[in-house]
UniProtKB/TrEMBL annotation:
It comes from the Bacteria. It comes from Propioniciclava tarda. This is Transcriptional regulator. Residues 149-209 form the Transcriptional regulator DauR-like HTH domain. Residues 13-116 form the YheO-like domain.
Length: 218
């Protein structure tokens, strides 16, 4: 494949990344590699989750595949960033002759859902986890406060406006998202949301009342 054809394929893939990343639930990112530029093969990034950047190096999955010649797709493998647990998928894209020219990696932060699972298991199975091989050992209690902070940070980040610049419509939309996600079932959730959004807890209650009034009567 000539350089012009390669650039056309890479350009088409890059054009798909933004819409695809917006379709995924935050936080996530998509990374495109030009395998002819290894090891610094990143040519496009959509989303912000790791420190991936254009001109940056490929990860071990991409470099190992290039070194071994095994370009089997990797689906849902676990990776660990400095502050998050990720699930990742990498697929390799060939040209018309079958030569691999690109790799596309999707990273998705599942640490929040791991916390949700821990809370659910603690509620369903009590002190003994379903997978606990030692019934006399009590599992560590899930950090519900940390879960609440993560849910709040994710909701605020999704709206893309600094809290200090938010108007009522922004804060109401965030509370609506939190309500839909079950945030207000957590302990002290109203107070936590009020602190994060710079309002009083009575304002949060008013927002919740407005949201309740929006629901059509059955």
């Amino acid at each position: 494949m000539g350089d012009l054809q390669r650039e056309a394929v890479l350009g088409a893939l890059a054009a798909l990344m933004g819409p695809l990343n917006r379709t995924l639930t935050d936080p996530s990112e998509i990374i495109l590699h030009d395998l002819s530029k290894l090891p610094n093969s990143i040519v496009a990034v959509a989303g912000h989750l790791t420190d991936a950047r254009i001109g940056g190096p490929a990860d071990a999955v991409v470099t190992d595949a290039a070194a071994s010649g095994d370009f089997t797709e990797r689906i849902g493998y676990r990776t660990v960033d400095e502050s998050a647990e990720l699930r990742s998928t990498t697929v390799f894209i060939p040209d018309a002759s079958g030569t691999m020219i690109a790799a596309l990696t999707i990273n998705y932060d599942v640490s929040l859902w791991a916390s949700v699972r821990a809370i659910a298991e603690a509620m369903l199975f009590g002190r003994q986890s379903r997978t606990d091989a030692h019934p006399d050992t009590a599992p560590v209690a899930p950090d519900i406060d940390r879960l609440a902070d993560k849910l709040l940070a994710q909701a605020i980040r999704t709206h893309g406006v600094p809290v200090e610049l938010m108007q009522k419509r922004h804060k109401l939309a965030i509370v609506r998202d939190l309500q839909a996600g079950g945030f207000f079932a957590l302990r002290e959730s109203v107070e936590t949301a009020a602190r994060a959004l710079g309002v009083t807890r009575f304002t949060i209650y008013n927002y919740l009342n407005e949201i309740g009034a929006e629901r059509p009567e059955s």
